Each structure stands twice: as structure tokens, then as C-alpha cells.
Sequence to fold (395 residues):
Amino acid sequence: MGGRRTRNALVVSEVAVTLVLLAGAGLTIRTLFVLRNMNPGIDPHNVLTMPLAISDTKYKTAVQQIDFFQETLQRVRALPGVATAGAVDNLPFTGGSHEPVQVEAQPVVPMADQPEVDVRVISPGYLSTMRIPLEQGRDFSDADRAGAQPVVLVSEAFAERFWPHDNPIGKHVTLTFFPGSSRVVAGVVGDVKLDGLDATQPVQAVYCPLLQNIEAKRMILAVRTSVPPASLTSAVTDAVHQIDPDEPVAGIVTMDDVLDQSLTQPRLSAILLGVFAGLALLLAAIGIYGVQAYAVRHRVHEIGIRMALGAGRGDVLRLVVGQGLKSTCIGICIGLGAAFGLTRLMSSLLFGVSPNDPLTFGGAAIALAIVALAACWIPARRAMRVDPMVALRYE
Fold:
């Protein structure tokens, strides 16, 4: 009796631990699915990106730096297979500058108390390259250069926060880290997941024109192509080297790759938990099968008596499977309780999924029950084939 209880307790423990791991793996897999199907605010397909960092000894002034990128963009746009091209200081999903701002119609406060927003420097053509929608106003043009009225574009989230009931076009924004006068809002663009796909709130962003930037030592070219983007790597590289043969070109990737790299952490979490959950499920199945097979071997005499007294094969099947599923159900109940508590610790790894998501928990419990049923089925089939006359003589 004691041995049977020990074996059943082991099965219950295995099932409970397996359910916790299955629930955790299910939550991370669902998080990865949500992130993959989220609207990032751009169209990453058919976009080639190329980081360029120029020497401040060779290009000493802001005018020289900006002219380099302007000429590079002109040459790249002229290449066959290129639809549009632009430049940005930091690509979406990779982080970037967060800076304090002063906004028209808002109280003037010290810099430490000013709201922080994402700030990006972009060239004309960047919005169309990334297919970021222009909701109001106008895009940057070549006329937005040094000496002209300083302008910015703001995101919808920025406009909604600071001017929820006013037209943002024509309002003024002062970037604390950008010296000079305030800048006029020329347009409002769609929200983009600049800091990563797992951002819970829309990013409040300000876009500054490259031609009005005080320095541009490092920018990233973004090239939208009408052909597979990787096929233009050599042509774009040659266009850069025609302007400056000494310019190093490395780190060329497609925007799809950038998006995929931003999912590295959730993908790794899903893989690790999935592997552990799979191993635990296999061990639980082996444990359930072993306990039931052992029980059948030691209850052959009892099974023979039952069959001699009129028990049918179906009765024997229900007896063996029922005993296996009883331990499984107890383990599932304990595992659900543990999972409800432990998965809350995973909140920082989840996005768009509740730590106690009932669909995930239900699916894990059903999957575990099916595996347990399959593990019980083989010993049960063996018990159904017991010959009553042989079993009665079994010792």
C-alpha cells in the first residue's frame, strides 16, 4: 500500500510540475505570436538598411556631413530597383534618443520636470520609405535646411497628449538638447513602435529634419526596393564608395531582419520553456505509463477474478484508465493552483497575454490529460487481454 501511494504521489508531482511548465511555455509562445502579428507602424518588407558613420576629421562641419548624406541619397535613389530612400539616426525597434521638451500651451517647468519623448532625425523621403502615414500637414522637404524656419513632425500620440482638442499644425516645440529657437510643427505622422514591439503605450515622438541638424556623423540609410532588397547590397555599397571610397560599409541588413532581431528575447524564452515543458511532458508520460504497467502486472490475479465474476473488457479498461487519470487529475488541479501563482512572476516576459490566461491554462491541462490518457491506454489494453483462467492460477 505504501509503495502504491509513493508511486501515485510521484505521478501527481510530475503532472503538477509539467502543467506549470506547459502553462509558462504556452504564455511565452502566445506572447511571441502577438508580437509577430502586431502593427509596428511601418512596412518592413522590401527595405534594406545600411549604417554609415563618417569621420569628423574628414567631414568637420555640419554642412559637409549633411552634404555627404544628401549626395549618397541622391545616388542611391537613382539606382535601378530602388523605389525610395531616406535616412534616420536610429531605426525603429532599436531604441534611440529620449529628450525633454517644452511644448506650447503647456506650463514652463525646469528641465528635470519636462516630459521626455523620443526624438529622431530623419531626411526627406524617410516617411515614404518606411510607409509611415502622414496624418496632417506636410512632410520634410529639401527646403527645410539651415537658415529656414526650424520645423518638426510629431507623432499622433504626441499630438494627442499635448493638444488633444487643438490643431497641432503651427504649434511650437522646443527641444531642450537642441540649441536655438523653438520649432514649428509642420505635420503629424502615425505612431511607430520605436522602442520595441513590446511597448505598452503609443510612443510620443518628435522628428527633426536632417538638413537642420547641427551635426550628422552617423545615419542609417533605409532603401525601399522593387526587387529583393538583398540583391541591391552591392549596388548601394558602390554608390556610397563613389562618393567616399574610404567609407566603411558594414552591418547591412533588411528591415525584416531588424524586426526579427527585436524578437530575440521573447523567442528565446519561448524556446527554453518549450524545451523544458516538452521534456517534463515526456517524463510525466513515462511515469504514468510505468506506474500503470507496474500496477497491472501486480493485479493480474485481481483482474482475473473480476473477469471471472462477469466484468467485461470495457470494465477492466475503465478500471485501469480511471486509476491513472485520477492521479493525473489531482496533479492537474495542484499544477493549476501553482501555475496561477508562479506565472505572475513572468509578467515582465509577457505582452498582450494575461499571466493567468484561461485559454492557455485550459489548453495545457487538456494536452496533459490527453498525454496521460495515451500513457494509460497501453497498460489498460494489456489488462484487457488477461485470460481469467491463467490469472486465477497467477501468483
